[in-house]
Amino acid sequence: MGTVFVALAPSAHRVPQRSIEASDVERSWKLLETARQAAIQRLAVIQETTTKELGLQDAAIYAAQAAVLQDPEALRDLKRRVVDELQAPESAVQALLDHLSRTFEQLEGGDVKNWAADLRDPWELVLRHLHDEDIELARHMGEGSLVIVAEELTPTLVVRYPRNKVAALVCARGGRYSHGAVVARSYGIPTVTGVTEIDIKALAGESMVVYGGEGRVLVGADQEQCERALVRSAEVARVSEALAGLAEEAGRTKDGTPISLLANIESMHDLDLFDPNTVGGVGLFRTEFAYMERPSFPSVEEQVAVYKRVLDRFGQKPVVFRTLDIGADKQLRYFRTPEEVNPSLGWRGLRLSLDWQDLFLMQLQALYSCHEFGSVLIMLPMVTNLEEIRQARQLLDSIAGCGELKVQFGVMIEVPAAAMALADIIEEVDFVSVGTNDLVQYLFAVDRDNPWVSDLYQPYHPASLRVLQFIAQTCAKAGKPVSVCGEMAGQPEGALFLAGCGYTSLSMAPLFVPEIKAILREVDMEALQAVVSRACRATTEAEARGILHESSEDAWAKVLAMVKTADSRSNPHS
Question: Is 179 a catalytic residue?
Fold first, then answer.
């Protein structure tokens, strides 16, 4: 809840096409360069802060945006406009933005068009430095909280204003899985997008209430609506505090079925953000970020030092290390993968590792060397077929030598072909983990960041649910443990469905662990299995999601009642 502040995009400022005198060229170009360098420095600060608070993956977009501001072709275009055509600095940048917009509009889809907002965003930051209007206005809006209203959700919008002032973000455009949405979600900022023309209709200074979980926005909220929102906010705070106090309890259902809740970790920074006692271990450690944080490929010794720190933090709890998963949107600055028409379907993950075996062998050697420090599980990403798994296992065996393998060896199922071949694959591995984000994307042939087809990205469609049920049943039949480390595991509907399917552990961002533990403790396995059966028999996404939502809402109501009872016992006069 807060006061509306409309963050106009520079294009909304309608920067005029202003000319300059020939004698003013040098000063104008210097002014533009100063604004550009200020924007680059601002992005560097944002990247550093975001890395410390959220990890390297969420911060990587800001490094990419800084690179956009150093594009030689764009700089030549700007210099031509200022020096040759005598355009004012802000007019030249606006003309570049207009050109980019027209170019993106002409593209037919997919991977380039998707990043239009991310590529325009840094140049719009340059315009803001030339004008500095909205930032200065935000600084003078008093002590109250702001609901930032904007045309489009972009990464810099999320971090442009002091976070202690930002109550919520409401935008006319922006995908649920866009970079801006990912950063906002990581910071815990309630965000609603797709509110048509909200940047035009909302009035600066009026009250607004945002129910992020429901996607509901009350524009021009009256006193009664604001008072109800305050009560709701206080309730949420009390519940969060109560659940945090119970977070160290083991994960289980109401009838005692154990469900281990694990943590997804991007980098060493994450280890300082939560209590390891609240989780049963690490279900996904993204090792690529140990590479991305360095100026060159890390040596075996450097990798061992990183992996050992993680294992030391979790004692004898299992830690799943996913082998190097670069390619597509995760690149190393010192190693360029070839340009591909569709990198998401290209040279990435295990495919790259098997082609660059020297690199892969070094990582396997480092991981295997750590078995004496804790419970090491090695997981292969982007597996397509059985032959790849056998090839990787041979490389691991060449390091381990004869005798019993002292680490566990598993695969990440995110390619539909691997899911369908799981009955063969399961015989070759110790465990399976499902990456639902990519599995759903590939299953529906949908780029989850593409706003044109985002409605078709449906994790709760019956087709997706049946595949997940099939994977769990196949692993259960083979007596092998199976986990999920995708986003579904951290969502109430997803967690209940997966537990009912028979997934033995769920791995998620530590932020979601207390809530998921509490919900699971309010349901028994027989009821969950019935819900799973109904959802898988559904014929549409809406029907299946409705069944799961009803179940999660019922469980959440019981959690709230439990918290209220505990609260009344500890505060009998409240």
Answer: yes
Rounded Cα distance, 327 and 330, in Å: 5
SS3 (DSSP) at 140? coil
Q: Check if the beta carbon of residue 208 is closer than 8 Å to that of residue 4.
A: yes
At the second CATH level, the architecture of 255-566 is Alpha-Beta Barrel (3.20)
Please, how many CA atoms are within 13 Å of residue 338, restricted to the half-sphere of its CB? 5
Note if the pTM is more than 0.85: no
Q: Where are the alpha helices (DSSP H) in 479-523?
A: 492-501, 513-520
Gap between the Cα atoms of 30 and 20, Å rounded: 14
State the pLDDT at residue 19. 81
- Greatest mean pLDDT among 29-38, 372-381, 438-447: 372-381
- Strands (E) in 304-358, as ranges, are 318-322
DSSP states along 182-235: HHHHHHT--EE---TTHHHHS-TT-EEEEEGGGTEEEET--HHHHHHHHHHHHH
Q: Which of 370, 485, 501, 536 is catalytic?
A: 485
Residue 264 to residue 283: CA distance in whole angstroms: 6
Residue environment code for 218-232, b if the CB has 16+ CB neighbours within 10 A, otherwise e: bbebeeeebeebeee
Query: Taking 60 as the threshold, does the pLDDT of residue 277 lie above it?
Result: yes
The span from the CA of 383 to the CA of 361, in Å, is 17
Listed in order, the ranges of the chain carrying CATH 1.10.274.10 are 2-221
Q: Across the strands, what pairs with 150?
A: 7, 171
In angstroms, how far is CA 347 from the centroid of its own chain? 22
pLDDT at residue 403, rounded to an integer: 82
- φ, ψ of residue 550 in degrees (nearest 5): -60, -40
Task: List Cα–Cα distances, 115 to 105, 180, 240, 338, in angstroms.
Answer: 12, 11, 35, 19
Residue length of the chain: 574
**Beta carbons within 10 angstroms of residue 254's beta carbon:** 16
How far is 375 from 380, CA to CA, in rounded Å? 17
Q: Where in the chain is the domain with CATH 3.20.20.60?
A: 255-566
Task: Determine contact, residues 435/379, Cβ cutoff 8 Å.
Answer: no
Q: Which residue has the tokens 């002091």?
A: 162
CATH architecture designation of domain 2-221: Orthogonal Bundle (1.10)
- What backbone phi and psi angles, to 5 degrees, belong to 147? -100, 110
Task: Determine the straight-line distance between the first and last CA of the chain, rounded to whole angstroms.
Answer: 25
The active-site residue, picked from 129, 171, 179, 501, is: 179
Asked if residue 467 lies in contact with residue 417, where contact means CB atoms within 8 angstroms, the answer is no
Annotation marks residue 171 as catalytic: no
Mean pLDDT of 32-38: 87
Q: Is 509 helix (H, G, I), strand (E, B) or coil?
A: coil
The Cα 335–Cα 454 span in angstroms is 31
